[in-house]
Amino acid sequence: MRRFLPDTFLILLLCTVALASVAPATETFAGWFAIATNLAVALLFFLHGARLSRDVVVAGLMHWRLHLVILLTTFGLFPLLGLALGYLPASILPKPLYLGILFLCVLPSTVQSSIAFTSIAGGNVPAAICSASASNIIGMFLTPLLVGLLFSIGGHSGFSWDAVSQILLQLLLPFALGQLLEPRIGNWIRSRKTLLMPVDRGSILMVVYLAFSTAVAEGLWHMFSLRDIAVVVVADMLLLGLVLLLTTYGSRLLGFDRADQITITFCGSKKSLASGVPMANVIFAGQGVGAIVLPLMLFHQIQLMVCAMIAQKYAKAAHRPAVLQAEPTASVA
């Protein structure tokens, strides 16, 4: 039953949203908190850059077909499915929540969970590390561009070219500095994963609190009902289910081996909360960011629960042939 329970981070996210609902950041405190949040996010991406080994990048880049499939899924298939959901009437899926779903569709893949599930399932871990990291780097350029393109198709606004420069300054520059210093500090940072975990989660919680503080002040919880949120959950599940099916069977049709199929399935189906929330804060500055990130927060938990079950099934399937081969030997003995 544990796989169906929310993880600790989701509970912290819900508590953060609750705190922002009853005690939102306002006026002077909000300004100082925004500065602290930007610094925390910059530190997060600096650590991501410093953790990523050069050897892993070089080894992973050799598998270009796999990376191409994952990138096309992340930045091609997902946005097309998101546009298809736009045909739902606003009476079923309110416009602000639909924009949130469309935004999550153009986000890069996760890093930590993609690698973790690939490892559990017996996939190509070096390729997963390289692909997930490349997705986040490319997403810093591509996500704001796709937001501008897809939102303009639907007649929506919310993008400016200034957002690209701000994202590069806040996310890419710290990441690049981390990569430059990786030969000196990479081993030290990788050996202290538990110690540095609060930076990962704390920076996201800070951005969520700031985003929902603004949204609550704009009347977020008076705009949507429980039915609206339930529709978002169903839409998130539909998106994830379709992408999992297409990546699982599509990778087989393309002739990838089992390890690469697993990598494509897990890296191609993820959407990054760590990158998505800071990007939303920049791209949609001055707008209802809370409604934009709400579908992403729900998708985050759904993908963790579903992919945990799939990873365990892959692991059991890999273990089964070894057991079957061992049984005849045991009976002869």
TrEMBL record:
Transmembrane parts of this sequence: 30-47, 68-90, 96-117, 129-151, 163-181, 202-223, 229-249, 279-299
The organism's place on the tree of life at top rank: Bacteria
Pfam short name (any one): SBF_like
InterPro entries (UniProt xref): Na+/solute_symporter_sf, Put_Na-Bile_cotransptr
Signal peptide, first to last residue: 1-20
Keywords, comma-separated and alphabetical: Membrane, Signal, Transmembrane, Transmembrane helix
Recorded GO CC terms: plasma membrane
Keyword Membrane: yes
PANTHER family to which the protein is assigned, alphabetical: SODIUM_BILE ACID COTRANSPORTER 7, SOLUTE CARRIER FAMILY 10 MEMBER 7
Protein name, entry field: Bile acid:sodium symporter
Taxonomic source organism: Rhizobium loti
Top-level taxonomy: Bacteria, Pseudomonadati, Pseudomonadota, Alphaproteobacteria, Hyphomicrobiales
